[in-house]
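User: Assemble these into one structure.

Assistant: Restating your components, then the assembled model:
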Amino acid sequence: MRAWLQHHRISLVKTVARLLASPFSTLLNVLAIGVALALPVGAFFLLGNLETMSQQVSVEPQLSVFLSANAAKSDIADIASRIKGSTGVLSARFVSRDDAIAELKRVAGMEDVIATLRRNPLPDAFVVTLSTRDSAVVDRLEREFKSLPKVAHVQGDSLWARRLDALLHLGRTAIVLLSIVICVALVAVTFNTIRLQILTQQEEIEVCCLVGATRAYIQRPFLYLGSLLGVLGGCVALAIVLATARILNSDLAQLATLYGADLQLRLPEVSHIVFVFGACTSLGWLGAYWSVSRHLLVFERR
Amino acid sequence: MAIVSFQQVSKRYAAGLEALRSISFSVDPGEMVFITGHSGAGKTTLLKLIAAIERPSQGTVLVGGQNVSAMRATAIPHLRRKLGLVFQGQKLLYDRSVFDNVMLPLIVTGQPYREATRRARAALDKVGLLDREKANPVTLSGGEQQRLCIARAVVNRPAMLLADEPTASLDAAYASEIMDMFSAFNQVGVTVLLATHDLRMVEKWGARTLTLDHGKVK
């Protein structure tokens, strides 16, 4: 057990020493891995921000129910009770045609336009707030309200939110695909790095085999090397993402003051950072393991 | 019980070359055996089969009672730890000192560092290289390099030493110095198998001789 720990320590120290022995090629390797990883990590992080922003922006789902122009007071009361009685409806607010035009007049520049009209073209309407965003319920209520007498048109206000959701979903799929491609690249890079390292240490490996080194003994430093390359690559990727987020945040702050909103990219959570490091380490290890098991076969007995 | 036993062992290489043809012999513990024969007679192949560097095409190779020909890959390192190998082409590592070369088998087998240092120094002392422990092997003479190989082979206190042409390319004085060393290890109970084409050595040391001729025991 002590010998085993001692060997693990020696392997790790040797691996670090080996990386430092050729700092330039190590740096280039780590940069290659890091830049490649920065793409999916950054995209993932950006998407996470878009998702939280979309949740903040799209408040409750609403339906606007427009009545036909010939709807009488009794019809309106009837429709109001039918709407309020439906399941899935949180509240319904009546907006009369007079209120609607008054509201429109308050919008800058609209007053002149409205003044040219001979009569109020706007219909009476209900703004219905729903208790759920579930599209099945929204669709059902939309159909139900449309079938009511004296209802001319029903407009789903949440449609744009659903479109955004669909877009975010598309983005997520694209990122998953991108991540897979980058992961394959990471494995390939470590595979090749380890292969070159094995070639330069061929003599040592051969001698170790002859004096009774086990396979695990010979593999260990290379597995450490692969994992270490992964970790360092992960560091570079995160550094790139964090630096980019900082730069973007100062630009966003300007944009936010113009819109009077609070726009800020939130930094990745600790659990996400841990996940990125875990993934990088495992992928580096995997590339190294694959390389070692392929190239050490040469030293097995014929 | 024999420490090495070959039963009808043949070794054919892919190119169709038949290095060994159905040879049988055995070596008792503590014996010193010369394996002689012209170059290409199969001396090196025979030693490689014992150390499980190569696999026989036919027949059974037993080492210390274990069937090496059917041995699993994971068991081979443990077999090799009981052997000391002095092979041609030396295979010294020139990126480290004389001392670190001798340390390698001890680190590989997981000896505690302090004990390993003590043993490495003892082995270097035995071959007369203790004062060169910090040197790079490249600065050693041919004879000294051969002695370093021997130190590395014996540092793990193996039960058996396998040496392939250990005196080739050495002049007579160096050669007999090397032979003295093998003989000394044999005196303390180590089995020694020595492949050589140098018949003067064989005559001088008068040990048991196994002569190979075109892959057969003569």
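Chain B has a mean pLDDT of 89.
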